[in-house]
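note to self — DONT lose this again. spent like an hour looking for the file last time. sequence + predicted structure for the chain T wanted, 67 res
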Amino acid sequence: MSSSPSEEAKSRSPFFPPQSESSAAEHQRQGQNRADTRLSLATCLFFVNMVSLTLLLFYRASVGSFI
């Protein structure tokens, strides 16, 4: 009699192994999303920097030729 309510409670309540598996997968997914976001942000900043440096170079060249 006393073992069946505890068995019900065990089957009803979420215990650590499935919770830890799901939280580990969720944590890995969040880390992957964070890494992808960081990578895309770095790539975007790199290209913006290259474009601005190229425009600055052409601007300096055009101003230097006009003077």
